[in-house]
């Protein structure tokens, strides 16, 4: 027996909606879809980011093993320290790869720019000033197109 059936047990079939309208308890949905707040990362960038996270986590584990084996005086300490240094270089490279991949993707596919409101406002003011300057220039020229003396005459071909 489902929750809805339990709520309307003993009542006629069509009264479940009527009960809900009068304040009866309506079961809550288990899963509610919400729109995403941010756009999903492109596949190439996501792949590079996952790769970088895995490499960084392995580097941290390797550095920890190197540290602990150095504390215990194990023979494994020196090779682990050397490989930790190499892994640090590789992890740095992986993080740079994420950054470069993201920049390349943005450049190739074009990203919608969302400037801050102040930048947008400054650009609007600059456009207004340019329009006003052009309008003043047009008024000074008398509204005619420059370079045409006898605009009403027929061409002499």
What descriptive keywords fit this protein?
157 residues, mainly alpha, single chain, flat
Describe this structure in words.
It is a single chain. The chain is an all-alpha fold. Among the domains are: 43-109; 113-141. Helices cover 63% and strands 0% of the residues. Helix 3 (43-72) runs antiparallel to helix 4. It is flat and about 95 Å long. The N and C termini lie far apart (94 Å). The model has no long low-confidence stretch (mean pLDDT 80). Residues 134-143 have a biased composition (Basic and acidic residues). Residues 121-131 have a biased composition (Basic residues).
- Tally the helices: what do you get? 5
Q: What percent of residues are in strands?
A: under 5%
Give a count of the beta strands, DSSP E runs of length 2 or more.
0
- The average pLDDT is 80
What letter string, H or E per element, gives the SSE order? HHHHH
* Gap from first CA to last CA: 94 Å
The main pleated sheet reads as: none
Summing up helix and strand content along with how strands pair, one would put the structural category as mainly alpha
Low-confidence stretches: none
Helix content: 55-70%
Inertia-based shape: flat
Cα-atom radius of gyration? 35 Å
């Amino acid at each position: 027996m489902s929750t809805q059936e339990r709520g309307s047990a003993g009542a006629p079939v069509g009264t479940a909606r009527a009960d809900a309208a009068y304040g009866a308890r309506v079961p809550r949905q288990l899963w509610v879809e919400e729109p995403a707040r941010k756009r999903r990362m492109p596949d190439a960038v996501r792949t590079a980011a996952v790769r970088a996270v895995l490499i960084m986590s392995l580097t941290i584990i390797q550095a920890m093993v190197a540290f602990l084996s150095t504390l215990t005086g194990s023979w494994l300490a020196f090779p682990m320290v050397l490989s930790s240094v190499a892994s640090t270089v590789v992890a740095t490279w992986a993080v740079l790869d994420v950054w470069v991949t993201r920049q390349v993707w943005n450049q190739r596919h074009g990203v919608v720019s969302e400037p801050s409101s102040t930048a947008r406002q400054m650009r609007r003011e600059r456009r207004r000033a340019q329009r006003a300057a052009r309008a003043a220039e047009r008024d000074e020229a008398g509204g005619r197109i420059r370079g045409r003396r006898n605009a009403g005459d027929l061409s002499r071909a």
